[in-house]
């Protein structure tokens, strides 16, 4: 494959198992022409503890991850611990390190940054004696404070909470993180753009798409659980949409 030649040109010392690499591309549905194909080769090598891959990780990925973490906190000890936790979480595992979960849907460095930011946020919540699920619970609390729900039966409230939680947990990890940052941590599109080093328009689009997916899935889960008129469901969803507004 040409991608192997290109990868070896980029990282001459990287060990590449041709059959394993081809199987990984096929399993992930990533074409060999994808700009992220080489990153899959790197992730596979990292999973085996390949020394060259670890050197690349430290030289090319760790600086970007450190930069992302510094936008969350400045304390050096905190940053060092967060980075160490990420290293262990991704590169150490029995039987398989989590780095193998990388699917090649975006650059490996960006995927690792998301893992690192989530780890740092969990550490920050832990220092406040909060549970690691507090971000999701806070979003659910926001949903349940809707005025329309205040006048419905408890059965509806319970069903809606369950539908919202199911919809939330059905999102990708990055989408949940973005929603928590926006609605729990009060981070705006500008903050998220700086955090992920992307254009403000891109950050806004990420937030908007995650919000729309959450609302759509919540509506579907709620209607599946309760035999109530669509007009009542839409009333609740309109109220929820008003609270979960992504400001430009």
Query: What distance separates the N and C termini?
Result: 44 Å
Largest sheet: none
Instruction: State the share of residues found in helices, binned by percent.
Output: over 70%
Radius of gyration: 21 Å
Number of helices: 13
Q: Report the sheet-strand fraction.
A: under 5%
Class from helix and strand fractions: mainly alpha
Dominant shape = elongated
Helix-strand pattern: HHHHHHHHHHHHH
- Number-wise, the strands total 0
Q: Return residue spans where pLDDT drops below 50 for at least 5 consecutive residues.
A: none
Average pLDDT number: 83
Integer tally of domains? 2
Please characterize this protein's 3D structure.
- By secondary structure, the protein is mostly helical.
- Helix 4 packs across helix 6 (108-127).
- The chain folds into two domains: 2-127, no CATH class; 134-243, no CATH class.
- It contains 13 helices and no strands.
- The chain has helices at residues 2-10, 18-28, 37-47, 51-70, 76-91, 108-127, 134-144, 147-150, 154-169, 173-183, 189-196, 200-225, 230-243.
- The mean pLDDT is 83.
Summarize this, please?
The chain has helices spanning 2-10, 18-28, 37-47, 51-70, 76-91, 108-127, 134-144, 147-150, 154-169, 173-183, 189-196, 200-225, 230-243.
What's the topology here?
Blueprint: H1 2-10, H2 18-28, H3 37-47, H4 51-70, H5 76-91, H6 108-127, H7 134-144, H8 147-150, H9 154-169, H10 173-183, H11 189-196, H12 200-225, H13 230-243
Helix pairs in contact: 2-3, 3-4, 4-6, 5-6, 7-9, 7-10, 9-12, 10-12, 11-12, 12-13
């Amino acid at each position: 494959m040409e991608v192997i030649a290109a990868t070896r040109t980029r990282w001459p010392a990287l060990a590449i198992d041709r059959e394993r690499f081809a199987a990984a591309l096929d399993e992930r549905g990533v074409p060999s022409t994808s700009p992220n194909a080489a990153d899959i080769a790197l992730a596979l090598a990292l999973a085996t503890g390949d020394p060259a891959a670890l050197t690349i990780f430290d030289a090319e990925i760790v600086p970007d991850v450190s930069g992302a973490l510094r936008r969350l906190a400045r304390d050096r000890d905190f940053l060092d611990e967060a980075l160490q936790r990420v290293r262990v979480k991704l590169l150490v595992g029995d039987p398989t390190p989590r780095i193998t979960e990388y699917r090649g849907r975006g650059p490996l460095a960006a995927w690792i940054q998301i893992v690192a930011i989530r780890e740092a946020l969990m550490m920050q919540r832990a220092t406040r004696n909060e549970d690691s699920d507090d971000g999701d619970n806070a979003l659910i609390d926001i949903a349940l404070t809707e005025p329309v729900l205040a006048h419905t039966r408890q059965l509806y409230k319970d069903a809606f909470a369950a539908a919202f939680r199911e919809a939330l947990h059905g999102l990708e990890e990055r989408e949940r993180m973005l929603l928590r940052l926006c609605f729990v941590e009060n981070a705006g599109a500008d903050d998220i753009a700086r955090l992920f080093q992307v254009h403000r328009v891109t950050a806004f689009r990420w937030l908007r798409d995650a919000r729309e997916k959450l609302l759509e899935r919540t509506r579907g889960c709620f209607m599946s659980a309760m035999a109530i008129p669509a007009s009542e469901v839409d009333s609740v969803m309109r109220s929820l949409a008003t609270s979960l507004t992504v400001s430009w």
